[in-house]
Design a protein that fits this description.
- The chain is elongated and about 80 Å long.
- Helices cover about 35% and strands about 5% of the residues.
- A two-stranded antiparallel ribbon has the order 1-2.
- It is mostly helical.
- The protein is built from 6 helices and 2 strands; from the N terminus they run H-H-H-H-E-H-E-H.
- Helix 2 crosses helix 6.
- It has a single domain, classed as Cytochrome c-like domain (Cytochrome Bc1 Complex, Chain D, domain 2), CATH 1.10.760.10.
Length: about 210
């Protein structure tokens, strides 16, 4: 009986200390975080995603992008994230103030996307990359997300949203697709939302705690 009590107490203390260190302590430190402002007239940072970008975040989650891409820049000395050009500073808790849930990612099969909206602001680039990644990133192992696009016959004037490919890019279309005269590739609502979300990813605001 005494031994059972000792085991119970040890297990309880183990879980209690873990809860205190991983849940309570961070909550006490961070629960009252507010958006940063350099001046009273400045736009606060961060701001909640809205509209198409907010919808795109759900497309990002639904398609498992976080399983191959992270959204966390490590500080200097803990990796080469900054020297790779993935961001000018490490990410900190305030960067994720409005993220529910926080999409830190599980691994880096592909590059970190914390600031992909700054590195690649072009919507056309993102659409081509999603349609067939090797078009924009030779040697990429990322799967094609061509199912987020629609191939349709051109009736009248081509759509202003249709993807435009060079002859070299046409030769790299994903398996199961083939360029046909009189047809165009147009992003679906999900593709447009996902690209809007990627374009919105910008955590370059100079937060003072990032230098600590």
């Amino acid at each position: 009986m005494d031994r059972g009590y000792t085991i119970f107490l040890g297990v309880f203390l183990t879980f209690a200390s873990a809860w205190l260190g991983l849940v309570l302590a961070p909550y006490l430190q961070l629960h009252d975080l507010q958006p940063a402002r350099a001046e009273e007239t400045d736009t606060p940072y961060p701001r909640p995603l809205q509209g198409l970008a907010a919808a795109g975040r759900e497309v990002y989650r639904a398609n498992g992008c976080l399983y191959c891409h992270s959204q966390q820049i490590r500080p200097e000395g803990f990796g080469a994230d900054i020297s790779r050009g993935w961001g000018p500073r490490r990410t900190v808790a305030r960067d994720y103030l409005y993220d529910r849930p926080i999409l830190l990612g599980t691994m880096r099969t592909g590059p970190d996307l914390t600031n992909i909206g700054v590195r690649q602001p072009s919507a056309a680039w993102h659409h081509k990359h999603l349609f067939n990644p090797p078009i924009t990133s030779p040697g990429s192992t990322m799967p094609s997300f061509a199912f987020l696009y629609e191939r349709r016959k051109v009736v009248g004037e081509p759509s202003h949203e249709a993807l435009v490919f060079t002859d070299q890019e046409l030769a790299q279309w994903p398996v199961g697709w083939s360029p046909e005269p009189g047809y165009e590739i147009v992003p679906t609502a999900e593709a447009r939302a996902l690209v809007a979300y990627l374009q919105a990813l910008d955590r370059t605001y100079p937060l003072p705690e990032a230098d600590q």
